[in-house]
User: Fold these one by one.
Assistant:
Number 1:
Amino acid sequence: MAKRTILTAPDPRLKAKGKDVDKVDGDIRRLIDDMLETMYAADGVGLAAVQIGVALNVVVMDIAQKEGKNDPQVFINPKILWASEETAKFEEGCLSVPDIWEEVTRHTAIRAQYLDRDGNQQVVEADGFLADCLQHEIDHLSGKLFIDHLSRLKRSMALKKLGKAKRQKELA
Ligand code: NI
């Protein structure tokens, strides 16, 4: 396993559209292991392959970390099949948009299909935090960040704050 570098906004590679994985083989499982290692090292709950510069539709997630547990989940080629009409605001952050937290409106429940680590087709019914995380990660696969859901003003403020933090880091 190897830790990879997480790209941060406004890196143009974060806007890449992911391709579906043709075959879940050893290379993909190695990618998944690298992504999990990278996500845990960064204290994140989710990571899309696009965020490490690999334009494939692969997502890893571990929402049990919130309760101090470990339950790694893998979603390959995830597609939303159904989304509730009901929406709610969720406070979100992103490893590619460090130290910015904003409320985003999401569907409160979704149904999605995906391939698991063994390449088997699965369907997940998700609500609450899992539904929020899945929508956030699936957005990454089409080059969309959570700040793209914000008003133009809030989005430009977030990018400004991010740029300032980056410059300070370079000077330090
Ligand atoms: Ni993210």
Number 2:
Amino acid sequence: MIRYFKIAVRQFLAFLCMLGACETALGADTLVLRAAENHPSDYPTALALKYMGTLLEEWSGGDLAIKLYTGGQLGEEKDTLEITIFGGIDLNRVNMAPLNSIVPETSLLALPFLFRSTSHMRAVVDGPIGDEILASLEPYGLIGLAYYDSGARSFYNNQRTIRSPEDLAGLKIRVQNSALSVAMVEALGANATPMGFGQVYESLLLGTIDGSENNWPSYESTGHYEAAAHYTLTRHTMMPEVLVMSEHRWQKLSLQQKNLIRRAAKASVPYMRKEWDKRVALSKEKVLSAGVKVIENPDLSLFTDAMAPVYKKFVTTEKMHGLLKRIQATQDASVL
Ligand code: GTR
């Protein structure tokens, strides 16, 4: 298995060199960090990584730079995460969901109806709990650098209006590659179909799936709204995005380089949040003007009531129970 991965990583590195991304590409002394991003280059997470790269180049006097591969060029999140762990990708911006099967603690942030608001989510990830969860990635070969916003995920489909779990019954709903996402959608009575982000549009057109779930900017930027025009704002999870670095690469850096990378990653967060808020507004406008049927305020109690088994299945250890209580007790950022 390990041998297979080593060969795959070597082939992958050769492929990157073909794309012109060997370490020496920007100048003999520049260490170029390869970064994976599955959104297009104008998406807020991609803009944040570009900004981080500019800061790094400036602060390191050209010693460090980022080469960004957007639009899923390096593969689906599940695969790029494995490659990152094995050292073939240096930086990777992923959602929490594909990390759930690698690092159990990350499931906490993916729990349905956990965060009361954006400011609650931000208070949690910006504080000690956020740091503890980032630190829990390290034994798995990943260095957690920062969280980015991902808004709230809601259901969309091309069959009917969803107002309650009964309306979801029997629909084939695509989910991210996470056992928690599967359990959540099944607890609501739908058939969960895990698949990569890049396959969703075509699968909607082909009828392999009837719908999926995501935030406003992803629903819009992927064009999913054209293929599934019923959107119900269930806001069932607010799991954030996360920027991770390969521990392989990390070990080879000087203390000064590590500090610069951590600082630049943190500095990109407020920048990202501004871009995020702007993009949510633009995406909403575009989707609404395309005539998508949006149910703004479904009765959420019908959905939350079905979630107890998901909590039971995924909050398993004493450590996780403790973290969950602390998350629930965290005050919103605006009232701190
Ligand atoms: C988006 C997220 C992506 C990816 C995608 C998905 O909101 O930003 O990284 O996880 O959802 O549904 O696969």
